[in-house]
Amino acid sequence: MRLIKGYPVSLKEKEFHYCPGCTHGLAHRLIAEVLDELEIREEAIGVASVGCSVLAYEYFNCDMQQAAHGRAPAVATGIKRVHPDKVVFTYQGDGDLASIGLAELIHAANRGEKITVIFINNAIYGMTGGQMAPTTLPGQRTSTSPAGRSSSETGFPLKIAELLSTVEGVAYLARVSLHDPAHIVEGKRAIKTAFEYQLAGRGFSLVEILAACPTNWGMTPLKALEFVRDEMLKVYPKGVYRRLEK
Amino acid sequence: MKKLVIDVERCKSCGICIEHCPAGLLVLSREINSKGYRPVRMKDEEKCNSCLLCALVCPDLVITVYR
Prior knowledge:
The complex is a heterodimer. Helix content of chain A is about 35%, strand content about 20%. Chain A has helices at about 25-35, 70-80, 95-100, 100-110, 150-155, 160-165, 180-200, 215, 220-235; strands spanning about 5, 45-50, 65, 85-95, 115-120, 170-175, 205-210, 240-245. Chain A has a seven-stranded mixed β-sheet with strand order 3-2-4-5-7-6-8, sandwiched between helices. By secondary structure, chain B is α+β, with helices and mostly antiparallel strands. Chain B has one domain: Alpha-Beta Plaits. Chain B is built from two helices and four strands. Chain B has helices at about 15-20, 55; strands at about 5, 25-30, 40, 65. A two-stranded antiparallel ribbon of chain B has the order 1-4. The interface between A and B is medium-sized, with 29 and 27 residues.
């Protein structure tokens, strides 16, 4: 008997605090597996955001830093400029990155900072109790839009991958989903490519991951994955949005 | 030696692995773990061919696979 799939070295063996069926655990594992495969755990410095993933520093087995709400790309910029030989990544949710932290994100991308941003888009504020986020789908019910998000009053879902696709400092930009095994494999490949772009010093890289939030969506974990497949992927098409060729 | 090693304390009964097992070999057990969830259980080890899908989709790293 040979071990086929075990526990990645880049994750501590601590149990996640995330809800059942939450995609955060899966995203953590894929990043950890990529850090293992590229053998960069010793050089990696992660920056955790504010939100459900605020405790990411408890789980990753590499150096971690906690940033103020939305400021992870700014903190990562500082770390990367002081330690240009290190691999710096941020791990941010949509409330953190697409709302309060949008300015930091866009300017870090525009400066072409050689960092990797992992963006978890679950279309809702998770930790604070399921409020509407900029990424919430039209008509989606949240605790602050109980009748469904009205685009005439509160606008439209903010598409970060499309938004950044015109920014010249961005070297690699992809949107992936983790709702089934094939997409999980694809998502891991995108995360790996993003880190490879950073290792090659090509510029800013970002992977947007469509994620499920069963608790705040009021769904079972399986129904939440179906929602990602049937509803979110329509509004947020997956794909590689920007990729600098050599 | 077992093909699947299930860390029952990590499992949160989300059922995603049960849905994805192509042979339908995984079920929730009757016992509960210390968190109050019913962890997933292997029904018939003989029929498992260690395809990895359960471990691939598990968000809580419950399953370790041997072949």
